[in-house]
Amino acid sequence: MPTRKPNRFLAPVIIAGITVGFLVSAYKFIFAKKQHQPSTNAQAEIGTTTTLQDIER
Questions:
Q1: pLDDT mean across residues, the chain
Q2: Measured between alpha carbons, how far is 17 from 55 in angstroms, rounded to an integer?
Q3: What torsion, rounded to 10 degrees, do the Cα atoms 9, 13, 15, 17 define?
Q4: What DSSP character marks residue 43?
């Protein structure tokens, strides 16, 4: 049975795609703008606040 030649085009394209994807994700991780997130205390207070109308019901 004759041996086939390895595909010399597909492997470098796949390796380049993986490398580019890795570099893009690393760039986004390093240079991402930090988004302002509300503190957990403020979220807890929002969830536990009751009004006079709630108490009367």
A1: 77
A2: 60
A3: -170
A4: H
Please report, rounded to a whole number, the percentage of residues in the chain having pLDDT higher than 70.
54
Contacts of 28-35 spanning 24+ positions with Cβ under 8 A? none
Tokens of 55: 């108490």
- Spatial distance between the Cα atoms of 20 and 17, rounded to a whole number of angstroms: 5
End-to-end CA distance of the chain: 85
pLDDT at 9 over 70: yes
pLDDT: is 53 or 8 the higher one? 8
Residue carrying structure tokens 């969830």: 47
